[in-house]
Recover the amino acids of this structure.
């Protein structure tokens, strides 16, 4: 299971580095939360070399393009972006300077040397498992003046070679990668090939990183993994823990008020994990649990190893454990062999569950995956029509879910300033964005907010919440 891929975002993780960097770094991040985490960690690795945030792309001494290969035209998108970066690099050289260009992430892993063949001006190509070696790669690229490629799966774990996690000052929410890779081999998915086999970090390392994040101001931590609920890390005192056990331990860290984990596979939702949702107040009542399809025939073709009834059973047990739990999912329409009846089964499952939000995609053949060579590909217009119908239904469910919060008093973790002056913004337990007029001094606190309005994607709140106001009067 991959963490959901959201539209490309540009991040400059080196916000965490010293105020006046000797060298300026700009990281462009495409794809999932794991890539966002990796970009931050690459910034951490480079900080001791004097790298800090570049004011702009044009200003950077090093640009890292952290890529995503999960869907559609990943390679073309990369080369078009590289064309733009080449012009910047040439302009810098014309001015007597130098800009290092690195391609990281899953396209780098999948394409490897092909990137250097088509874009010889790239200095470094590195896969997701090797970024702890960035300092050596930079030294080699600079000194030897030749391109460096590192797309092996090294025997050592990068996690053992990273500096302590850095967190932007005042960062209230943080990601923490606990697991990487996947052994599930869904028919459509590149992750097992680009991220490698499933690997879990030891519990002690996870707990130490969580404590460090909390010490620097994090109040909410989202545990990350391509298949996070398959986590089975070494326990601090020998043996192994499950994710449920790890969550209980994390919940004891003082100051860590909220926990989430993503992305999970239905096959790995065990009874203890479901029970943890009822037992741990810190575990937020929101779960991203991709189902991909509602048709048993297509789920089998996808090699998902669960059917629709199994998924519905998990949802029912989760709701029994935590009645207010809100669900999110990923869907693929137009997987090879999907008929109109199969697609109707997906719509039926969506109606039965009622999702608070979801991501849905047209099937995109990924080179090297089994589904890509299947004969019964679904025509593009059919995929488009199905995606539009599914997205209409999901958007209506999301809006209805948001509307159902109006009038409620919700604990909102304030994460930062709002879009307008005098506004602050935060997160509801159900991962909805909440905007409200209140002082900035509340940033970092969880406060009770009355929800006064709901839009398709966010909520508007009032503070103090009504009865607190009365109590104060
Ligand atoms: N085509 C379309 N969507 C895909 N996903 C993964 N691989 C593909 C593909 N080849 C979707 C799945 C996954 C999410 C992160 O991306 O729904 O859960
Ligand atoms: Fe998720 Fe399946 Fe891809 Fe593994 S192979 S990351 S379970 S979609």
């Amino acid at each position: 299971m991959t963490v959901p891929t959201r539209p490309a975002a540009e991040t400059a993780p080196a916000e965490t580095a010293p105020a006046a960097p000797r060298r300026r770094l700009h990281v462009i991040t495409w794809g999932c939360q794991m890539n966002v985490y990796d970009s931050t960690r690459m910034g951490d690795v480079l900080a001791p070399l004097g790298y800090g945030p570049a004011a702009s792309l044009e200003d950077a001494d090093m640009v890292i393009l952290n890529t995503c290969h999960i869907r559609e035209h990943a390679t073309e998108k990369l080369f078009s972006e590289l064309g733009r970066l080449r012009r910047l690099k040439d302009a810098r050289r014309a001015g007597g300077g130098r800009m290092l260009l690195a391609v990281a992430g899953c396209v780098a892993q999948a394409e490897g040397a092909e990137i250097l063949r088509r874009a010889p001006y790239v200095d470094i190509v590195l896969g997701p498992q090797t970024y702890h070696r960035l300092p050596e790669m930079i030294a080699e690229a600079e000194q030897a003046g030749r391109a460096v490629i590192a797309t092996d799966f090294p025997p050592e774990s990068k996690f053992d070679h990273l500096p302590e996690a850095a967190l932007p000052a005042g960062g209230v929410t943080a990601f923490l990668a606990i697991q990487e890779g996947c052994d599930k081999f869904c028919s459509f998915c590149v992750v097992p090939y680009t991220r490698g086999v499933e690997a879990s970090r030891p519990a002690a390392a996870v707990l130490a990183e969580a404590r460090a994040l909390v010490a620097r101001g994090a109040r909410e931590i989202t545990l990350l993994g391509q298949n996070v609920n398959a986590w089975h890390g070494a326990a601090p005192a020998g043996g192994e823990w499950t994710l449920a056990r790890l969550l209980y331990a994390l919940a004891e860290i003082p100051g860590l008020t909220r926990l989430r984990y993503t992305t999970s596979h239905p096959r790995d939702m065990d009874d203890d994990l479901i029970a943890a949702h009822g037992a741990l107040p810190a575990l937020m009542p929101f779960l991203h649990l991709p189902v991909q399809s509602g048709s048993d025939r297509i789920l089998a073709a996808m090699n998902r190893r669960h059917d629709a009834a199994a998924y519905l059973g998990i949802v029912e047990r989760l709701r029994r454990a935590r009645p207010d739990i809100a669900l999110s999912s990923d869907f693929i329409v137009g997987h090879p062999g999907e008929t109109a009846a199969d697609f109707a089964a997906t719509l039926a499952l969506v109606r039965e569950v009622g999702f608070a939000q979801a991501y849905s995609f047209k099937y995109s053949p990924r080179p090297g995956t089994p589904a890509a060579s299947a004969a019964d590909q679904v025509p593009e217009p059919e995929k488009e029509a199905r995606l539009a119908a599914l997205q209409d239904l999901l958007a209506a469910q999301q809006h209805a879910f948001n509307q159902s919060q109006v009038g409620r008093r919700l604990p909102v973790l304030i994460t930062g300033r709002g879009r307008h002056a005098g506004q602050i913004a935060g997160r509801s337990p159900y991962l909805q964005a909440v905007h409200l007029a209140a002082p900035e001094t509340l940033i970092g606190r969880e406060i009770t907010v009355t929800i006064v309005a709901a839009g398709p994607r966010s909520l508007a709140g009032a503070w103090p919440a009504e009865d607190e106001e009365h109590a104060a009067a």
Q: What stands out?
A: Confidence is low (pLDDT under 50) at residues 1-18.
